[in-house]
Amino acid sequence: MTENSTWELPARIEPAEELPAFHRLWLGFMAARMGVGVVLLVLLGGLMLAGFTSVNGWQLALCGAYLLASVAVRMFARPAMPGRTFDPQWVSTIGIDLLAFSTLQFLQAASLNYAPLYALPVLTASVLGSFLLALGTAAGVTLLLLIDGWLQALLIGDHTGPLVQAGLSGGGYFAVAVLANQLSVRLAREELAARRSRSAIRTQAHVNEVVIETLTEGVLVVGADWQVHAANPAARQLLGWQAREAPASLALISRPGWKPLVALAQRTFADQTSHAAELALELTRGERLHVRVRTRLTPPQDAYADALCVMFLQDLREAEARLRTEKLAAMGRMSAAVAHEIRNPLAAIAQANSLLAEELSDAGQQQLTTMVRQNAQRLSRIVDEILNLARLQQPSTDWLELDLAVDLFAREWSEQNKPGERLRLSLASDAAWTAFDGEHLRRILVNLLDNALRYASPAPGAIVVATQMTGEQARLHVWSNGAPLDPGVQRHLFEPFFSSESRSSGLGLYICRELCDRHGATISYTRAPAPDGSGRDGNQFTIAFRTRATVLPGALPFATIRA
């Protein structure tokens, strides 16, 4: 079976396309005709050299002509399948055979009996021709034998012996013709059935390969000797298998980090039953992959084949991501109605709490109203995020001058959150124009800045917002000097409902990614030096935009559009 494919398996070995049985038989008979011609030429030539007076030059010439005709037919003719009508092609084979053998038989060259040679044209007609051609050839040979027997009877005066012998030989040729023809017909039917079966098997095998190649689930096929017989692209990617060697050249026990797979396969072979387990594989030092593995044992196809263990690998992270996606889909169907129902009483609670706070003077009671206000605000933010997620639709795209739009949004955020000297701007995208909706870009930048402010230190320049041009692509960086993120957190940053804090809804970065996807942009996270050139390491979120390096005709700066 068959990096893509493609399945990344050992190259599939297709058997060489075999010639049809009819073609192979035709080649065999043509080789037999040439062999007979060579034998006759050598035999008569030897007898002539030995001094036999009954052999002369024209007989050798006849044998030579027969040999040349046989070679010419073999070289230039093409086999014709038997049909309902007579094919003139048979004249160049059966006709020449009958003519040459009859001439030698009637003239009794070298006093030899050439009647057995008639078996060659009879078999040729029976195996390669139609039933009528087989019977016609057998009848022609019988007639020639009877004529030869009659001529011999005239010479020796005995009319019984030669004619009876000729009749029996002719009857034998009829029997040979019928039997050979029926066998050839049966062979043709069986070959056709075999070819159809092989074609169906190949088609099914190719379909199976395509299905396995496109599976998101990894598939490994392992033998009892731990050799990897097959591995689809998903399994290669999952196991970090970047080497170019074919699966058959790699043993499962050759990688120390795959020992849990070896143990599970060993249990499968020992118990002769299927197993399932969640395993932790160490791909590289410090990198562990948690997978769910199911095994199936294939029965041996024959006494000479061994059973194989098929292992289905599923990344638990992907399974968790799918679960979250399903959770999000279920949430989306009811989020709008529920959020509206929550929003109205929540607004009443917040308003009543504000009125109550104005009437209370006791410090303890004021603290309680503050707690109510903070939690009401938190609930309001969660409701807004869920509503915003439910309202995400295909946006209307504006062409924004990136530096101008980022400067405006960053300053508005700064006025509301008062980061002071903690925020620095480094805008250097050379007035690039980006295809993005203005309000959506504001939401993304505000979300990233809120996260940066939450984890950044109080030091000056702890948050840096920078733009730059990389080739023909504009990029926006939001960097903060917070602590490095755990690798387990990094893998799930942009997944819905994932958060490292219990007080967060886990939708902020997911909404950022969705908005970027809808505008043809990408967002990513990396641990990188500060974009202001200070050399400090920190957490950096980067957005890569679709851009135009020049101002569009008739386009206005974003500040003018907003005004």
UniProtKB/TrEMBL annotation:
TM segment ranges: 25-50, 57-77, 89-107, 119-147
Catalytic reactions of this protein: ATP + protein L-histidine = ADP + protein N-phospho-L-histidine
Keyword terms, alphabetized: ATP-binding, Kinase, Membrane, Nucleotide-binding, Transferase, Transmembrane, Transmembrane helix, Two-component regulatory system
Presence of keyword Kinase: yes
Molecular function terms from GO: ATP binding; phosphorelay response regulator activity; phosphorelay sensor kinase activity; protein kinase activator activity
Membrane topology (UniProt): Multi-pass membrane protein
CDD domains on file: HisKA
SUPFAM superfamilies xref list: ATPase domain of HSP90 chaperone/DNA topoisomerase II/histidine kinase, Homodimeric domain of signal transducing histidine kinase, PYP-like sensor domain (PAS domain)
Localization terms from the record: Membrane
Protein name: histidine kinase
